[in-house]
């Protein structure tokens, strides 16, 4: 079954769906009715009855329910990426902005119209799909300019201590100490733009001179600081420093649409960071945290603002602290009211914590193989997470072929649909990679390339602060009594605090001078933080 432009459902042969009702089995009729949503629909494919798909029984996903989140799971090579592509391209054509991460480089074809073939036409017909060749408007991004795409960067200060602790693989004690370091930088108005800034600040605060600065809010042990510094040095040496800096990316750029109202697909190209998987997964969590922070409440809408596909989701949760997991759960639970839907893509549902899994109303499960006792256990656990079905899912799931899946989605009344064994439709965009030339052309034509393409080092901030440090050092050499006069003459709380800080040698310290090389926030402005410790915009 397929949808025509005026919304009427028809068979592949053009006959109205109701004419075929008498020919359907009771199960097929139940599935057809359960997935025939009134509003906008994403066509996932056709129900498999026996061994062949029945084009008269469409399996759909309600566009308005995309913000109920989802899971696309299955073993490697079973069709997860194509299912992602099918949902993403239709969501964009429905008017939702889309974000996808291309970990292996095989999703870039979403920017190129698909190429017709006899095999593709036969597949589409068998699934009740009226296939056309088209691609949604696409932007290509890269982390820090590693590879093709408009660079996405953020500052260390904006990234925040919780997410930084995750990428540095710190334990709870070390994470708490890192939070103290960020708090000090925030209250002193010292911006952390890149990893060198953070390293220099840690070195200063653990020095004899800097320890006094932390007495009012606590302290950091030398051993803990040493662990953080070693982790930071290793992280920086891996090349991760390019992801931190300016211009910092504004996540609202992910919500743009084309002039005709079609959602733009933001495709983050990630082959260059395959050796740092935890970084890319945490970076994507930062994007969600930023969106959660900035977007207004909209409740349920006919079309979500953004559908966010989180590939290789298991990497996000691996070795994550309780504080981190709590924040992920909170984000997933609450961001749907901001018009954002999240789809996690991984191998089995057990890769996703139970509290997160409970929030995922739309489920597409491709084949799993049970080669070991652990595999068999995971298979049974996966089958148990689906609604009761007349099928033995423990037997059905391993027997699924490539491009086949069991599906249950959130209906418009908030209840799960019955399980449907589904042959997934073909993408309308290309299933082959777009190629370097095509990607380069898209990036060159992007209006974001000029805005974010060139790294910025705000030397003006360093010059201002370094000049202040040199001026104060020169004043002390010429008039040793000046600091005493300065302390006694200060009337305001701010000037008194500043004088006390300068007396301790804050701006005269070589470590702080190194730190100030990249710092750029206005002195005295305290930063407020929100979800995940990310920095609130003003």
Give a short synopsis of this structure:
The protein is of the alpha/beta class and 538 residues long. Helix content is 39%, strand content 14%.
Written description of the protein model:
This protein is an alpha/beta fold and 538 residues long. The chain is built from 21 helices and 14 strands. The protein has a twelve-stranded mixed sheet, with helices on both faces. A hairpin with a 2-residue loop joins strand 3 and strand 4 (52-62). The longest helix has 20 residues, at 459-478. The protein is elongated, with a radius of gyration of 27 Å. It starts with a strand and ends in a 22-residue tail after the last helix. The relative contact order is 0.17. Mean pLDDT is 82; it is low at 1-21, 459-469, 485-507 and 513-526.
Summed up, the helix count is 21
β-strand number: 14
Evaluate the radius of gyration.
27 Å
Mean pLDDT: 82
DSSP strand content: 5-15%
**Structural class of the secondary elements?**
alpha/beta
Main β-sheet, in a few words? Answer: 12 strands, mixed
């Amino acid at each position: 079954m397929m949808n025509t432009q005026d919304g009427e459902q028809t068979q592949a042969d053009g006959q109205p769906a109701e004419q075929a009702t008498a020919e359907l089995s009771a199960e097929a009729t139940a599935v057809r009715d359960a997935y025939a949503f009134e509003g906008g629909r994403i066509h996932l494919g056709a129900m498999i009855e026996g061994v062949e798909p029945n084009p008269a029984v469409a399996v759909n996903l309600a566009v308005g329910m995309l913000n109920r989140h989802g899971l696309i799971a299955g073993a490697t090579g079973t069709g997860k990426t194509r299912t992602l592509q099918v949902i993403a391209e239709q969501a964009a054509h429905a008017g939702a902005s889309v974000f996808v991460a291309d970990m292996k480089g095989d999703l870039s074809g979403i920017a190129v119209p698909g190429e017709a073939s006899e095999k593709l036409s036969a597949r589409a017909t068998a699934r009740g799909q009226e296939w056309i060749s088209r691609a949604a408007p696409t932007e290509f991004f890269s982390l820090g300019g590693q590879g093709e795409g408009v660079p996405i960067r953020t500052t260390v200060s904006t990234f925040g201590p919780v997410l930084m602790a995750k990428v540095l693989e710190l334990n709870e004690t070390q994470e708490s100490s890192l939070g103290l370091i960020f708090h000090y930088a925030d209250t002193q108005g010292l911006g952390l733009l890149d990893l060198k800034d953070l390293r220099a600040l840690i070195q200063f605060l653990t020095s004899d001179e800097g320890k006094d600065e932390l007495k009012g809010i606590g302290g950091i042990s030398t051993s803990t600081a040493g662990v953080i510094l070693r982790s930071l040095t290793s992280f920086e040496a891996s090349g991760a420093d390019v992801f931190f800096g300016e211009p910092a990316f504004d996540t609202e750029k992910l919500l743009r649409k084309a002039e005709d109202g079609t959602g733009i697909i933001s495709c983050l190209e990630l082959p260059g960071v395959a050796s740092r998987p935890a970084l890319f997964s945490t970076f994507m969590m930062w994007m969600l945290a930023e969106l959660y922070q900035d977007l207004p409440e909209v409740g349920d809408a006919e079309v979500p603002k953004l559908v966010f596909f989180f590939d290789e989701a298991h990497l996000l949760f691996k070795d994550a602290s309780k504080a981190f997991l709590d924040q992920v759960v909170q984000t997933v639970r609450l961001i749907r009211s901001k018009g954002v839907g999240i789809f996690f893509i991984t191998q089995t549902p057990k890769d996703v914590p139970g509290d997160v899994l409970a929030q995922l109303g739309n489920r597409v499960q491709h084949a799993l193989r049970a080669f070991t006792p652990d595999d068999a256990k995971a298979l049974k656990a996966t089958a148990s997470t689906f609604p009761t079905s007349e099928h033995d899912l423990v037997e059905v799931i391993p027997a699924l072929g490539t491009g086949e899946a069991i599906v249950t989605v959130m209906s418009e009344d908030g209840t799960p649909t019955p399980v449907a064994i589904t042959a997934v439709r073909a993408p309308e965009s290309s299933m082959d990679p777009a190629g370097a030339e095509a990607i380069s052309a898209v990036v060159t034509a992007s209006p974001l390339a000029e805005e974010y393409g060139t790294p910025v080092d705000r030397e003006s901030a360093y010059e201002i602060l370094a000049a202040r440090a040199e001026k104060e050092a020169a004043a002390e050499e010429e008039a040793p009594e000046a600091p005493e006069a300065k302390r006694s003459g200060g009337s305001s709380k701010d000037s008194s605090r500043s004088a006390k800080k300068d007396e301790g040698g804050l701006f005269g310290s070589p470590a702080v001078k190194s730190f100030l090389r990249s710092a750029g926030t206005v002195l005295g402005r305290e930063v407020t933080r929100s979800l995940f410790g990310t920095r609130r915009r003003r």
